[in-house]
Write a structure and sequence with these properties.
single chain, alpha/beta, Alpha-Beta Plaits, 4 domains, five-stranded antiparallel β-sheet, 15% strand
C-alpha cells in the first residue's frame, strides 16, 4: 500500500524534485484543510455506522485473541515500511493489506476497525506526528469500512459462484485505492494538487502494490488454515520475507543516503555561485552583509534535506557565515518560530563537547545528558538530539543539531549517526572551499596592499557601469613616492600609498569604486556624472590627496596629478571601451603634469600625441634596419690648443611621415619600452667602425657614446662591449661612455659593478650634464669616472649671469682637484671659449666648433676645416696625424 495520510508533509507531485523545500501554508489553506479533515472524519464515521448496521456484530470467544493479534499486525506493518524514490516521487510502501485480508476473513467489522484505529493512532503518537488526528482517524475508518462494503456487495452479487477469499481480496485492494484518493484530496486542499495524469499514474501503482500485498496475505492465510503445520511454513516464509525486506531496506537506505550526500554537496556548492555583482565592489561591508543574508537563505534546502533524510522532527544549522564572527541560525521542521526567536544560549556556544577536538557525532537524551545539555533540549522541546560540529582547517565553522526521530520507536540508530557524520564532513569541506574561493575571488579583483580594486576589478566594474549608462574615469598619479621609498624604505612608501587610498575613499564615499592600478597610480569610476562635475570632483580630490602626510614624527609632502575622461565620445572620435578610457585618462594625466593646476580632461588632440608615440615605438626597430636612423658626430677640441680630440655620437631619425625627429622626442619613448639596448648597440657598432676607419687613415680620434639606465642595469653589457672591441680591433681608450648621475643612482647596487667592469676594460667614463642632477663631491667620489661634462645651460649663461660663470669655474676646479678631465658643452661664441681657456677647462664642444654632422659631412669637416701647412697638420710623437681647428 502507498500511504500518504501517515505524514502530513508528504508530497506526491512528480514534477516537484526531491527534496521538497519547506513552504509555508497560508491561513486560508489551513482553514480549508481543517474543514476537509472534519468532512473526512464525519463521513468516515457515518460509513462506519452504516457498515456496522449492515454487518451486525457477533461475539465469539476467539475474538479476544484475534482482536489484539490484528491490532499488533496493523501496528507491525505500520513500522515495517519501505521508503522509495521513483521519478522524484516519495513512496512509502507498507503491508497494511495483509492484516486487513486476515481481518476480512476472520473477524467482524467492529473488531477490525477498532484494531486499525488503535494501531494507526498509536503509530501516529509514537512518530510525534499527531497533528492531523481528525483527518487520519477519518481515513482509518474509510480504509476498513469500504473493504467490508465491497466484499459484502461482491458476495451478495455473485453468491456461491465466487469464493469468499476472492471477495475479501477485492475489498482489501479497494482499501489502498481509498487511501490514495484521500491523500490526493488532502494535497489539493493544502494547495499542492496533482495533475490528472500524475494522479492516474499514482492510482495505477497503488493498485499494483495493493494487489501484490493482498495476494501474499491470502496465500499465507489459506496455507495456515488449510494445511497441516501450515502456520509453521508461513512463519518460516514470513521470517525469510522479513529478512529480505530488511536487506532490501538497508540497500535502499544506503542509496538514499548517497543521494542525500550528493544532493547536499551540490546545493552547498551552488549556493556559493551567487555574487553581489550589482553592489559596489569597493563597499566591502555591504558586500559582506548581503552575502551573509543570501547564504542563509540558500542553506534552507540543505537543512530541510538533512531533516527529511534523517526523518527528524527538527534540524538546526548554526553556521559562521559572517566574516565578522557572528553565528546564523537556521531551523528546518517544527518549532521554527520559537527557535528563531530564541536568543538564549545555543548548543554551539553552550555545549562544551563542541569545543573539544574532533568531528564526532554526540548523542544526547534529556534524561541522561549533562544539566546544561538537558536545559538546552528542554528549551527546544526535544527529548533526543544528535549534535556534530562543523570544523574547518583552523576554526569551528558551525554545528548541526538533529532533534527527535519521528519514524521509529528506538530513536536514532547507527546508520543515522554515520550519515550525519558524513554529511557534516561534506558540509565543513564545502564551507572551507567556499571561504577559499571567496578569498581567491576577492584577491583576484582587489589590491593586496590597500584593499582597493585592482586593474582587473576596476575593468569589470567599469564595464558593467558602461553597459547601463555613462561614466567618467579619473586617473590619479602621486609623485615623490620613489623619493620616500629610497630615503625611508619601501615600507614607508607603502604607508603613503595606503594613506592616499584611504583619503580617496574618505573624499569620494564608500559607494564610489576606487582602484590602485600600479605602484602610485589610482583610478576612480564616477557613474552618471558630467565632465563639469568630474572636473570639480577631480580638483577637490587632487587637493585633498596632495595634502601633507604625517607619518609618525615626519610630514611628507606629495604632489598629485589627475586626468579624467568621459565615456560620452566627442564629435570626432568613436566610443571607447574600458581599456580605451583608461588609456585616454593616462594621456590626460601626462598632460596634467605640464599644466599649472595639475588637472586635465581628455581631448582628442591628446590622443594624436599618444598615437604618435605608439607609432614611434612600433616602427623603431624597422627604422634601425632600414637606415632611417643615422649617427651624427659633434666634434670636441682640446683647449687651448684647439686640437680635435674626438667627437660625440648623436642619433638622428629621419621619419618618412614625421620628418626629422629630435632625440628628445623618441629616445625617452624607446628607453621606456626596452628598445634602448638595440639603440645603444647600433650606435656603438657605427662608432667603432668609424674609429677603425680613422685609425687605418692615421687619425686617432675618440668617440663618446651615451648610455641609459637600462644599459647600466644589464650585467651582460660589459662582456658585449669587450666582444665589440675585439671584433673591430679598436683600443678601449678611444671610446667614452657618457652617463648621467640620475641613471647611475636609480639603482646604484646594480649600476656601480657594471661601471667598474667597463672601467676595467679601459674605456673612458664621463658624467654628462654635470651640475643638474645629484652632482656633489660625494657622488663623484663614488663613481669610477674619468671625465665630467658641464651642462650647456651653465656655459650658455656665462656671458650674462655671473652665478653661471661661478658654477662653471667651480666645476672645473672640482674636476681638476679630483684629477678628472672637464668638458664644456654649449660653447657657441669666442667669448665663452676664451673664458673657458682662462679657467683651464680641458675640452670644448658646441656650435662654435660645429653642429652635429652626418658621417660624410663630418669626414669633410675634418679635412676642410683643418690647415694644410706643415705646422698645422703634422705628426705627433706616435706618428699619427693631428688635426687642429682653424
Amino acid at each position: 500500500m502507498i500511504e500518504h495520510h501517515r505524514s502530513s508533509g508528504a508530497t506526491v507531485d512528480s514534477e516537484v524534485p526531491r527534496p521538497p523545500v519547506r513552504s509555508e501554508v497560508s491561513p486560508r489553506r489551513r482553514r480549508i484543510f481543517a474543514v476537509f479533515s472534519a468532512a473526512v472524519l464525519g463521513t468516515g464515521a457515518l460509513v462506519s455506522v452504516v457498515t456496522s448496521w449492515l454487518f451486525p456484530f457477533r461475539y465469539e470467544p476467539d475474538l479476544l485473541v484475534i482482536g489484539p493479534l490484528l491490532a499488533a499486525g496493523f501496528l507491525l506493518v505500520e513500522q515495517l515500511t519501505i521508503d522509495v524514490d521513483a521519478k522524484r516521487v516519495g513512496w512509502t510502501i507498507s503491508f497494511t493489506e495483509i492484516p486487513l485480508i486476515v481481518g476480512l476473513l476472520t473477524a467482524p467489522f467492529e473488531v477490525v476497525l477498532a484494531a486499525n484505529l488503535v494501531a494507526g493512532l498509536v503509530a501516529q503518537v509514537g512518530k510525534r506526528a499527531a497533528t492531523h488526528v481528525s483527518y487520519n482517524a477519518g481515513v482509518l475508518c474509510w480504509e476498513i469500512a469500504v473493504p467490508f462494503l465491497v466484499a459484502g456487495a461482491c458476495g451478495n452479487l455473485f453468491g456461491d459462484t465466487v469464493p469468499g477469499w476472492l471477495c475479501a481480496g477485492i475489498g482489501a485492494v479497494s482499501s489502498s485505492l481509498i487511501s490514495c484518493g484521500c491523500a490526493v484530496a488532502a494535497l489539493s486542499a493544502l494547495g499542492n494538487g496533482m495533475r490528472p495524469s500524475a494522479g492516474l499514474l499514482l492510482g495505477g501503482r497503488t493498485f499494483v502494490v495493493g494487489l501484490l500485498n493482498t495476494s501474499i496475505g491470502l496465500a499465507g492465510y489459506e496455507l495456515a488454515v488449510n494445511t497441516r503445520w501450515g502456520w509453521a511454513l508461513v512463519t518460516v516464509v514470513g521470517v525469510g520475507v522479513l529478512a529480505l525486506y530488511r536487506a532490501y531496506s538497508g540497500l535502499l537506505r544506503e542509496q538514499r543516503d548517497l543521494e542525500a550526500l550528493s544532493d547536499v554537496s551540490l546545493r552547498v556548492a551552488r549556493s556559493g555561485q551567487h555574487t553581489t555583482r550589482n553592489l559596489p565592489a569597493s563597499d566591502t561591508s555591504a558586500v559582506s552583509a548581503i552575502g551573509e543574508r543570501v547564504s542563509v537563505e540558500e542553506w534552507e534546502p540543505v537543512a530541510e534535506r538533512i531533516r527529511e533524510q534523517l526523518n527528524a522532527t527538527r534540524v538546526v544549522l548554526r553556521l559562521s557565515l559572517d566574516p565578522r564572527g557572528g553565528v546564523s541560525t537556521l531551523v528546518a521542521g517544527a518549532g521554527q518560530e520559537e527557535e528563531t526567536a530564541t536568543d538564549g544560549a545555543t548548543l554551539l556556544r553552550e555545549c562544551p563537547l563542541l569545543q573539544l577536538p574532533g568531528t564526532h557525532v554526540r548523542s544526547f537524551r534529556r534524561g541522561d545528558a549533562p544539566e546544561e545539555i538537558s536545559r538546552a533540549l528542554r528549551l527546544r522541546g526535544a527529548h533526543e538530539a544528535l549534535v556534530v560540529p562543523l570544523r574547518g582547517t583552523n576554526q569551528l565553522l558551525g554545528a548541526i543539531e538533529v532533534h527527535d526521530r519521528v519514524s521509529r520507536w528506538r530513536g536514532f540508530g547507527r546508520a543515522d549517526i554515520r550519515l550525519l557524520h558524513t554529511l557534516a564532513s561534506h558540509l565543513a569541506t564545502a564551507m572551507d572551499n567556499r571561504r577559499l574561493l571567496a578569498r581567491l575571488r576577492h584577491d583576484a579583483y582587489h589590491d593586496p596592499l590597500t584593499g582597493l580594486l585592482n586593474r582587473t576589478g576596476f575593468r569589470q566594474m567599469a564595464a558593467e557601469a558602461l553597459d547601463t549608462g555613462t561614466a567618467v574615469v579619473l586617473r590619479i598619479d602621486l609623485e615623490l613616492l620613489t623619493t620616500v621609498s629610497e630615503a625611508l624604505g619601501y615600507a614607508w612608501g607603502d604607508r603613503m600609498i595606503v594613506a592616499a587610498g584611504r583619503r580617496m575613499r574618505e573624499y569620494l564615499g564608500g559607494h564610489v569604486p576606487v582602484a590602485r592600478l600600479e605602484a602610485n597610480s589610482f583610478a576612480v569610476l564616477l557613474g552618471g556624472h558630467t565632465e563639469e562635475q568630474a572636473a570639480e570632483i577631480a580638483t577637490g580630490l587632487r587637493e585633498f590627496v596632495a595634502e601633507p602626510y604625517p607619518l609618525d614624527r615626519l610630514v611628507v609632502e606629495a604632489t598629485a596629478f589627475v586626468g579624467y575622461v568621459s565615456s560620452v565620445p566627442a564629435e570626432d572620435e568613436s566610443e571607447g571601451d574600458v581599456d580605451v578610457l583608461l588609456q585616454r585618462a593616462d594621456v590626460a594625466v601626462r598632460a596634467a603634469r605640464n599644466g599649472e593646476d595639475g588637472v586635465r580632461g581628455y581631448v582628442p588632440s591628446m590622443g594624436q600625441i599618444f598615437l604618435r608615440r605608439f607609432q614611434l615605438v612600433t616602427q623603431f626597430r624597422h627604422a634601425l634596419e632600414s637606415g632611417q636612423v643615422e649617427v651624427h658626430y659633434q666634434p670636441k677640441v682640446a683647449l687651448p690648443s684647439r686640437r680635435v680630440v674626438g667627437a660625440e655620437a648623436l642619433v638622428r631619425w629621419s621619419h618618412p611621415e614625421y620628418g626629422r625627429l629630435s632625440p628628445d622626442e623618441f629616445v625617452p619613448v624607446v628607453e621606456a619600452t626596452g628598445l634602448v639596448d638595440a639603440l645603444t648597440s647600433f650606435v656603438l657598432e657605427r662608432a667603432l667602425g668609424r674609429i677603425r676607419g680613422w685609425l687605418d687613415r692615421g687619425l686617432r680620434l675618440s668617440v663618446a657614446v651615451n648610455l641609459s639606465v637600462r644599459n647600466l642595469a644589464d650585467e651582460t653589457f660589459p662582456e658585449r662591449v669587450r666582444e665589440a672591441f675585439e671584433r673591430h680591433g679598436v683600443p678601449p681608450e678611444l671610446v667614452t661612455f657618457e652617463l648621467t648621475e640620475s641613471s647611475v643612482m636609480a639603482d646604484p647596487d646594480r649600476s656601480l659593478p657594471v661601471l667598474r667592469r667597463l672601467r676595467a676594460l679601459g674605456v673612458v667614463l664621463a658624467v654628462d650634464d654635470f651640475g643638474t642632477g645629484y652632482s656633489s663631491l660625494a657622488y663623484l667620489r663614488q663613481l669610477p669616472v674619468d671625465e665630467v661634462k658641464i651642462d650647456k645651460s651653465f656655459v650658455l649663461g656665462m656671458g650674462t649671469d655671473l652665478s653661471d660663470m661661478a658654477v662653471v669655474r667651480s666645476i672645473v676646479e672640482l674636476g681638476h682637484s679630483l684629477e678628472l678631465s672637464v668638458v664644456a658643452e654649449g660653447v657657441e661664441d669666442d667669448a665663452a671659449r676664451d673664458q673657458l681657456v682662462r679657467m683651464c677647462c680641458d675640452t670644448a664642444q658646441g656650435y662654435l666648433i660645429s653642429r652635429p654632422l652626418s658621417e660624410d659631412r663630418f669626414e669633410a669637416w675634418l679635412w676642410a676645416r683643418t690647415s694644410g701647412t706643415s705646422h698645422d697638420r703634422r705628426n705627433d710623437d706616435s706618428g699619427e696625424t693631428a688635426l687642429h681647428v682653424i
